[in-house]
Design brief:
2 helices, alpha+beta, about 20% helix, seven-stranded mixed beta sheet, about 130 residues, 7 strands
């Protein structure tokens, strides 16, 4: 399995355990708010002592509606604390950190929170 697939699946699995909010790997056609969508990981090569490694940037977009983003703030705070397992489908996680978090109000009373993490992974020994 590629690093992109492994990180994407690992992040989705970690976030699906978040209470009160379904999380999808693509924008749902019909879903009630609140919900989250995990974007495709963006990969950059990460080399260390002859080890095949990747730095993966992963984004979660949470959506909710309302006059104030009280529920969305709670969901974003829960998502910020999500951890990845040490190994994801043949890839060892060497680092996982939140690098960006932003909340904005869109049109029609829709609020979105965008969170971005960086994961560093390298192929686990077989």
């Amino acid at each position: 399995m590629s690093a992109r697939e492994a990180v994407g699946r690992g992040v989705l699995a970690a976030l699906q355990g978040m209470a009160g909010c379904p999380v999808f790997d693509a924008a749902p056609a019909r879903a009630r708010v609140p919900f989250g969508v995990v974007g495709e990981p963006v990969l950059l090569p990460w080399r260390a002592s002859g080890v095949e490694g990747w730095e993966a940037r992963v984004t979660l977009v949470l959506s909710d509606e309302g006059e104030r983003p009280v529920r969305l703030r709670t969901l974003a705070a829960a998502a910020e604390g999500v951890a990845l397992p040490s190994v994801i489908e043949g890839w060892r996680v060497a680092g996982w950190r939140l690098v960006r978090s932003r909340m904005v109000r869109g049109s029609g009373g829709r609020w979105t929170a965008t969170l971005e993490w960086v994961a560093r992974v390298f192929r686990a020994e077989r």
